[in-house]
Amino acid sequence: MNYFAFDVKKLLIVISLVIIPLMAVNMEHNPAQRPWFVKPFIFVSGVVQNLYSGFSSGVRGTTALYLNLIDIKKNNQKLQKENAELRAQLGTLTELKLENKRLYNLLGFKEKTKMDLLTAKVIGKDLLIDHTTLTINRGTVHGVKEFMAVITIGGVVGYVIQPQTFTSQILLLTDRYATIDSIVQRSRARGIVEGINNKSCRLSYLGRDDDVQVGDRIVTSGLNNIFPKGFTVGTVTDVVKNQYDISQEVTLKPAVNPFTLEEVFVVLNTHNEDFLTEEETTKDKIEENESKAPTESEKQTKASEVKDL
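Above: the chain sequence. Below: its structure as tokens.
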């Protein structure tokens, strides 16, 4: 077999297919010199070039669009992450603002009172139907003892029942085992506040003829020097007098909502502070100032005197 033999016809065809298109491309700049046999190749070459140009443009456009979509997706993910971080920061700043406001109010109350108060944070809650207690981050090393009163600016919270070294358990006034000696602020009728559930208490051991009405404020009596005298316990919401009963059923709403407590005060020493006396003194001063204020007739007389001058 002769490997060096070749077909002349095939060689001529290959040469023609290579040379003629090159000639056609070269003659595009001088159409007058184009031979007739070159024109079909020029036409085919133009079609192929147009198809290739359109295909390459489409590929470039699709590739650019795909890359743009990838960039948009990455930017979107980045913006979503930044948005989540900003929301978290905003939530943290809001919490800090609210906490600062609470602590500012607590500090103001602590500075005004004569009592020795220990600020504590609520670190645990056990708010069951028949058992309502809190756990605070203060214990015996901080001076906390059993039966010390626990209050907040709004009113009575409860008292210490289990002081530990670094923590203490607080029995809320809404617990059914809690008892706080109290009086009706308006009429001075005395009774014992007992817990019913998380939202209400009762004022027990009132006589049938004791004066108590819906809307009356119940305050601490100050006995045993555990709670300061006159500190708010709650407000009467219902009074029922049974026909054959020697007492009356008085229900009250606690002044403090145990579900929202975050900081409290432990009363280390009341120093016999009397909020009733302070409130009555303030009220007397207001009434005295109002009595000293000139009446309308006195104002008119004074105005006429000034006008005559």
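Confidence is low (pLDDT under 50) at residues 281-288.
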